[in-house]
Specification:
The complex is a heterodimer of chains A (about 375) and B (about 350).
Chain A lengths: L4 E4 L5 E9 L3 H17 L5 H14 L1 E3 L2 E5 L3 H24 L4 H25 L1 E3 L2 E5 L3 H17 L5 H14 L1 E3 L2 E5 L7 H29 L2 H5 L10 H39 L1 E3 L2 E5 L3 H17 L5 H14 L1 E5 L17 H8 L7
Antiparallel strand pairs in A: 1-2, 2-3, 2-11, 3-4, 4-5, 5-6, 6-7, 7-8, 8-9, 9-10, 10-11
Helix pairs in contact in A: 1-2, 1-11, 2-3, 3-12, 4-5, 4-12, 5-6, 7-9, 9-10, 10-11
Chain B lengths: L2 E7 L7 E7 L4 E6 L2 E6 L4 E2 L8 E4 L5 E4 L2 H7 L12 H6 L1 H33 L6 H13 L4 E2 L4 H17 L7 E6 L7 E4 L3 E5 H6 L3 H16 L2 H20 L4 H6 L1 H29 L5 H14 L14 H9 L2
Parallel strand pairs in B: 9-11
Antiparallel strand pairs in B: 1-2, 1-7, 2-3, 3-4, 5-6, 6-7, 8-9, 10-11
Classes of the chains: A alpha+beta (about 375), B alpha+beta (about 350).
Chain lengths: ~375, ~350
């Protein structure tokens, strides 16, 4: 059983804090992962949907809220159809890039216009196949709203020189969360529209700082140490470059890139953490709220060590990396509840198609939670 | 014992009920608990396949559901007729060390042979089925792009020199019986220095510095033979096909794993791409040797200009894993070996 702590919230009504728990184990997931990879490769990808469902079920089934697991019940055959459509789109797009570069722009326009539809389909498929205590989640297919947010507000982002981007991000999150339901109970997103701005301002200051260090300290230092480097971009003179000198330059460039990427990951981790916490802390459903307490330092550490582990192990530590990141993220989320998780009611069922979801995955669209 | 404890949900509300599941001899299962009772035939229910340590779910036709936390305890009471074949066996492979080790071994060898032989062979085959005309836009676009970016600028070579070279080149190509003569262009380039390029659809570019580096026109004929190989062997098209297939394969393997591993996937992709590029260069060198032999040209001329190129750019020592060309010294040694 959980140890439920009784806490007092602002309105001093008694609430229970129910932590989300993740029980997945790296070793166990390794077996699932390697068999998935093998079967996917030797079936030239046909097994991929089954692999995906197994993976999702492993992660959902190991995520417990008040001792009950989540589940993912999608039919792999539906996903296979989606994959096929996505593959055809990928091939058309690749061929166009290579043979008919002038067709790329119209194709991207089409893609931009289809994107909101894909996002809605993809969310609907994902949520309707996610269950908890035999109740399905749902996503309201609000296409008009999707176009307003992703095309309308999306177009305003470049027009405002990116100034409204944090607000656009808020709009996206609000759309995705407000249209989601668990059974008949709708989720609500109560965040203030401007709440992402401080996060982006801090990130911008950090980026500016990094830029300053690179252009006013590191680069001048480098060109004082290796004057030859200045001439590198121009024509190489007949005498060529001394190999020892060249090695020193390579080593220096390596360290230089290393330092820059460390800063880059730090900024990325900060943004992920801040945004994730803000979003979760503002979600509520039927008087239940959530709290998320990710720490930037811990996320940074996980990102660094995961990447390093994966590179040094030739990919064999991918399962380990994934399990420990999920474990940390899940362990930071808890539900602030009035203790009643038994009163949720199922809604009428309708099935979503997998096409949207798989299209979204191939083109790297990732929205929401 | 044919009973197992389970949590039952009616599918209407999220209220859990503890029940006892009994698997009866008449191929039915009965559910009993406080205020809950039911009986279903074996054929009516769906048991989820086993994955890791997660719960078992048994779905009944009326949308009610039993969750059993410990799959093992269900397995123990499940009648033989309900133990499924097929995908249910996947768990046994995922779960046993010797199968995992075997899967790892096979996966590694399949990936290795796909990268080493499978993708190149497939790309070669597919490239052979694509008409060269399809590449026309591709080649012209690449040339235009390089000019817009000022990687290539108008040539500064005297017209007379160009005319004379073109004549020498075309004479050799005609003697060799090349049906479709490549379009040979001269360009000045600050960015790429002494170099020659073969673009898709049969465009060959010599940079001014390359022409000036040659001490003998036969050296340039050697370079031409090498670039011709890139065109004859459809290396441009094969490069595109191979790299797209490689990217697709990596997406398939790393799947939905997140940003950390897609970053980590960059390095192996670069390594494989560099390796493919080096193989094309080797193939082109081999072609050039045969070609020059037939035309009665001594291959030492190609070796000479490669050596001079190597000295100029200081890259003639050893081949690195990320190099797109084999080390110049290796190429020269190979050319002068016989």
């Amino acid at each position: 059983m959980q140890e439920n702590q009784v806490v007092l919230d602002e309105e001093s009504s008694p609430q229970v804090e129910i932590p989300l728990v993740f029980n997945g184990k790296a070793g166990e997931y390794f077996g699932i992962w390697i068999v998935n990879v093998l079967l996917t490769i030797i079936t030239i990808g046909i097994y991929a949907p089954w692999a995906k469902v197994r993976t999702k079920r492993y992660f959902y089934g190991n995520t417990l809220l008040a001792d009950s697991p989540f589940d993912f019940i999608a039919n792999p055959v539906v996903i296979l159809k989606g994959y096929f459509i996505a593959l055809v789109c990928y091939i058309i797009f690749s061929l166009a890039t290579e043979f008919q570069p002038q067709a790329v722009l119209p194709l991207m326009l089409v893609f931009f216009l289809v994107m909101p539809w894909v996002i809605v389909r993809s969310m609907a498929f994902r949520l309707t196949n996610t269950t908890y205590r035999n109740i399905r989640f749902h996503f309201e297919p609000a296409y008009a709203d999707a176009y307003k947010v992703f095309v309308g507000w999306g177009l305003l982002v470049p027009l405002s020189f990116g100034l409204i981007f944090p607000y656009y991000l808020y709009k996206q999150n609000k759309f995705v969360i407000d249209k989601s339901r668990f059974g008949k109970s709708p989720f609500e997103f109560g965040m203030e529209g401007g709440a992402f701005y401080p996060v982006y301002i801090i990130a911008m200051v950090l980026v500016a700082g990094l830029f300053f260090i690179v252009s006013f300290i590191a680069t001048p230092m480098m060109s004082t140490m290796f004057p030859e480097l200045a001439g590198m971009s121009g024509a190489v003179d007949e005498s060529g470059i001394d190999p020892e000198q060249q090695q020193a330059i390579q080593l220096f460039t390596f360290i230089y890139l290393g330092v820059v990427s460390v800063f880059y990951v730090a900024i990325y981790a900060y943004m992920q953490t801040a945004i994730n916490n803000l979003v979760w802390n503002n979600i509520s459903i039927a008087k239940q709220r959530f709290s998320s307490s990710l720490k930037t330092g811990r996320m940074m550490w996980l990102y660094y060590t995961n990447t390093l582990g994966i590179v040094l192990s030739f990919g064999l530590l991918i399962p380990w990396a994934r399990v420990r990141l999920t474990k940390y993220r899940v362990s930071c989320i808890s539900m602030l509840s009035d203790g009643e998780l038994n009163d949720f009611v199922a809604a009428e069922q309708h099935k979503g198609s997998a096409t949207g979801e798989e299209l979204g995955e191939v083109f790297g669209l990732d929205v929401g939670l | 014992m044919n009973k197992v404890e389970a949590t039952w949900y009616d599918g209407q509300s999220s209220t859990p009920q503890t029940v006892l599941l009994t698997f009866n001899l008449d191929e039915t299962v009965s559910i009993e608990g406080a205020g809950v009772s039911g009986c279903y035939g074996f054929k009516e229910m769906k048991i989820s396949p086993r994955i890791g340590n997660i719960h078992a779910r048994i779905q009944f036709p009326d949308n009610s559901l039993c969750e059993i936390t410990d799959y093992e305890s269900l397995q123990a009471v499940l009648p033989a007729s309900l133990k499924r074949g097929g995908l249910a066996n996947v768990h046994n492979w995922e779960n046993k060390l010797r199968y995992i080790a075997l899967a790892l071994l096979i996966t590694a060898s399949v990936i290795w042979s796909a990268v080493e032989y499978g993708l190149p062979a497939a790309a070669k085959f597919v490239a052979g089925t694509i008409p060269v005309e399809w590449e026309t836009a591709m080649g012209q676009q690449t040339l235009d792009a390089m000019e817009t970016l000022e990687i290539l600028e108008p040539t500064k070579l005297a017209e007379q020199r160009r005319e004379q070279l073109l004549q020498t080149f075309n004479e050799m190509l005609r003697n060799a019986g090349i049906e479709k003569l490549p379009r040979i262009e001269f360009r000045n380039s600050e960015a790429i220095g002494a170099n020659a390029l073969a673009l898709p659809s049969g465009i060959i570019i010599f940079t001014d510095a390359m022409v000036e580096l040659a001490e003998d026109d036969r050296e340039l004929l050697g370079i031409l033979a090498h670039e011709l190989a890139h065109i004859e062997y459809r290396h441009g098209m094969r490069h595109v096909l191979q790299n797209s297939a490689l990217a697709l394969m990596l997406i398939m393997i790393t799947g939905d794993v997140g940003s950390a591993s897609s970053l980590a996937a960059t390095l192996p992709t670069l390594l494989a791409q560099a390796k493919y590029s080096r193989e094309f260069e080797k193939e082109a060198d081999d072609y050039a040797v045969v070609f020059m032999d037939k035309q009665g040209l001594n291959k030492v001329h190609l070796a000479n200009i490669l050596e001079r190129l190597g000295n100029l750019y200081g890259d003639n020592q050893t081949t690195g894993y990320l190099d797109t060309h084999p080390a110049t010294q290796e190429r020269v040694n190979k050319l002068t070996a016989h």
